[in-house]
């Protein structure tokens, strides 16, 4: 695959299409099985509250993976992501109801670099709180 977005097509400030990623307790259980991360803070409400959390929380790596989908969907090639890093600032709390939680992600081109690369800054929110800080990806465009 190759990036479907050309370097000359973007400017600093170009906004990527925003997305919302819903998740429920069932999502967390499936992710735990796929990742092998069965920490009870991600599925056991009683345990999560006993250790001081407000409720069950999403896996940080799951939150990070959902956020970068905004970039990979935009560029059209997951292999175009050269670097990606975040700081986990707040947990995504996932209530045990029919709605669950929503991770809302927006992103924009923050810098044009050499070699057809751009830096994309992402904002990930859940329940009105920023859940990822310093969320940045470097992407090689066509």
Report on the architecture of this protein:
There is one protein chain. With 142 residues, the chain is of the alpha+beta class. The protein is built from 3 helices and 5 strands, in the order E-H-H-H-E-E-E-E. It has helices at 25-35, 45-50, 60-75, and strands at residues 15-23, 81-88, 101-112, 117-126, 129-140. A 5-stranded antiparallel sheet has the order 1-3-4-5-2. Strand 4 (117-126) and strand 5 (129-140) form a beta hairpin.
How much helical structure, as a percent, in the residues?
10-25%
Structural class: alpha+beta
By DSSP, the count of extended strands is 5
Chain-averaged pLDDT = 97
How many H/I helices? 3
Give structural attributes:
142 residues, alpha+beta, 5-stranded antiparallel β-sheet, 3 helices
In short, what is this structure?
By secondary structure, the protein is α+β, with helices and mostly antiparallel strands. Helices cover 23% and strands 36% of the residues.
SSE diagram, text form:
Layout lengths: L14 E9 L1 H11 L9 H6 L9 H16 L5 E8 L12 E12 L4 E10 L2 E12 L2
Antiparallel strand pairs: 1-3, 2-5, 3-4, 4-5
């Amino acid at each position: 695959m190759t990036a479907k977005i050309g370097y000359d097509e973007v400017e600093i400030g170009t906004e990527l299409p925003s997305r919302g990623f819903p998740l429920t307790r069932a999502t967390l259980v499936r992710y735990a099985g796929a990742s092998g991360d069965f920490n009870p803070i991600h599925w056991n409400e009683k345990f999560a509250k006993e250790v001081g959390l407000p409720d069950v929380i999403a896996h940080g790596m799951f939150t990070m993976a959902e956020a970068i989908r905004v970039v990979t969907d935009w560029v059209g090639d997951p292999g175009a992501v050269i670097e990606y890093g975040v700081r986990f600032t707040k947990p995504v709390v996932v209530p045990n109801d029919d709605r669950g939680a929503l991770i809302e992600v927006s992103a924009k081109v923050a810098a044009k670099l050499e070699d057809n690369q751009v830096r994309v800054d992402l904002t990930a929110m859940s329940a009105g709180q920023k859940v990822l800080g310093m969320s940045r990806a470097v992407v090689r465009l066509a």
